[in-house]
Design a protein that fits this description.
Elements (H helix, E strand, L loop, with lengths): L1 E11 L2 E7 L9 E2 L2 E3 L6 H13 L9 E10 L2 E11 L15 E7 L1 H9 L11 H38 L1
Parallel strand pairs: 1-6
Antiparallel strand pairs: 1-2, 1-4, 2-3, 2-7, 5-6
Helix pairs in contact: 2-3
């Protein structure tokens, strides 16, 4: 049976947000982006919004999430189907993140260049350990996510300028 999950690469003011899983949890002691199961009757976007709120205390609107891709992976004999989203809020910083203590014990924010280096240079004795799926996301999707977030920010700025110009012309 395949586990249906969502992952949300979340960029805040200091970089990409990663949460450290509790030691007694699946993949305990490893960092991952906010993520979780899609519950019965829930859409992927509803699950992503719920997981952001539960795991990090972030309340986002559906329009703020950007769909990135769907892919499959396996960890410890369990098959996962991952629906990956991106979210950016440069007004948030690490102190705004509220952990779900039943699942996570620490939080970090890492800049895009450092995330890319972590994905490329996996060592036998890393200081930070990430889940297999998160290494894959960092290696495969970081640059496309950066591009999508940049384009989204520009579209929003263009829409604001257009609305202001229309208002001023009236």
């Amino acid at each position: 049976m395949t586990e249906e999950i969502v992952g949300i690469m979340t960029r805040i003011s200091q970089g990409y947000l990663f949460l450290k899983r509790n030691l007694d949890d699946f993949e305990g002691g490893k960092f991952n982006c906010p993520a979780g199961h899609i519950e019965k009757g829930e859409t992927a976007i509803e699950a992503a919004l719920r997981e952001l709120k539960e795991e990090a205390g972030i309340v986002a609107a559906p329009s703020e999430l950007i769909y990135v891709d769907t892919f499959s992976d396996e960890i410890k004999g369990i098959d996962f189907r991952v629906r990956l989203f991106a979210y950016a809020n440069d007004r948030l910083d690490l102190s705004d993140i509220k952990l779900l203590p039943q699942e996570h014990c620490d939080k970090i924010a890492i800049g895009a260049d450092a995330v890319e280096n972590i994905a490329l240079v996996r060592t036998d004795r890393p200081t930070l350990v990430f889940t297999k799926i998160d290494y894959r996301v960092m290696a495969t999707y970081l640059r496309p996510i950066e591009r999508l977030l940049y384009e989204s920010k520009n579209r929003a700025a263009d829409a604001r300028r257009s609305a202001a110009a229309s208002k001023n012309a009236a």
